[in-house]
Design goal:
The chain has one domain. 81% of the residues lie in helices and 0% in strands. The protein has six helices and no strands.
């Protein structure tokens, strides 16, 4: 295991999520006052789940990087590169969603943005799965959570 690379792979999504959380923190009081759709989890659960998901993304990205040239399979470099580019793009899209939703309170636009994110994550799942089943499976909870987040986002749009 290349520990330095592993730590970087773990740190990148956690930093993206942490910065996004920091930038939206001032909007959390207003969010708590919104009418919530049924099945809305308690507020404390969101940072816990997102931290776990970002950590799983980081582990999956490490596995993907190691499945390419660094892992001894240079013929897979193009596919690995494409998978990691997609991963980076979806991280950027993920970073923007809370800004749209919490800070700008653009709930419908945020939902549309979340649909884009969901499509990117599903595409990333297939891309990762082709290279490593384990990395693909690590993305599944992310797909499920963003699906649930879409339900919550749309519910908040209609209720508020």
């Amino acid at each position: 295991m290349e520990w330095k690379l592993f730590i970087i792979c773990l740190a990148v999504p956690l930093a993206v999520g942490g910065l996004s959380a920091f930038l939206t923190n001032s909007s959390m009081k207003q969010f708590a006052e919104l009418r919530q759709p049924p099945l809305s989890p308690p507020a404390w659960l969101f940072p816990v789940v997102w931290t776990l998901l970002f950590a799983m993304m980081g582990i999956a990205s490490y596995i993907i990087i190691m499945s390419g040239g660094r892992g001894g399979f240079p013929e897979r470099n193009a596919e690995v590169r494409s998978a990691i580019i997609l991963y980076g793009l979806q991280l950027a899209v993920n970073f923007c969603w809370p800004l749209l939703f919490f800070n700008m309170k653009m709930y419908l636009a945020a939902f549309m943005w979340l649909l884009l994110l969901w499509l990117m994550i599903v595409t990333m799942f297939f891309s990762f799965y082709r290279l490593s089943k384990t990395a693909g499976y690590l993305v599944v909870p992310y797909v499920l959570w963003v699906t649930f987040a879409g339900y919550l986002n749309l519910g908040i749009y209609f209720l508020n």
